Amino acid sequence: MDSEKLYRQYLPMSETAYYILLSLTNVRHGYGIIQFVEELTQGRIHLGPGTIYGSLSRMEKDRLIQAVAEEERRKLYLITASGKELLKLEIARITELYENAKKVEGSLYE
């Protein structure tokens, strides 16, 4: 899939996609992703198995992640260079949102 189409499909990114890509900066299996995201977000986000495995399948097809091994019948995934590029774009977008909010923050509480 070409980059432009991929960007339109994934940006802005859902929290699910964001946290899956973020978690796959280290090798993890599906259940490991679920645990990592729940811990990272202090329980605010719980990814169900249907959500996680559907997303992993789509992201693997789109070459944002790749299966790198299998351990005890569990596929282990890692983010690809394309996935990293997309994640960096989303982080830049979120940073811009945050920086812009800080510029007007005072007026929010008046």
TrEMBL record:
<dbReference type="InterPro" id="IPR036388">
    <property type="entry name" value="WH-like_DNA-bd_sf"/>
</dbReference>
<dbReference type="InterPro" id="IPR005149">
    <property type="entry name" value="Tscrpt_reg_PadR_N"/>
</dbReference>
<dbReference type="Pfam" id="PF03551">
    <property type="entry name" value="PadR"/>
</dbReference>
<dbReference type="InterPro" id="IPR052509">
    <property type="entry name" value="Metal_resp_DNA-bind_regulator"/>
</dbReference>
<feature type="domain" description="Transcription regulator PadR N-terminal">
    <location>
        <begin position="26"/>
        <end position="88"/>
    </location>
</feature>
<protein>
    <submittedName>
        <fullName>PadR family transcriptional regulator</fullName>
    </submittedName>
</protein>
<dbReference type="InterPro" id="IPR036390">
    <property type="entry name" value="WH_DNA-bd_sf"/>
</dbReference>
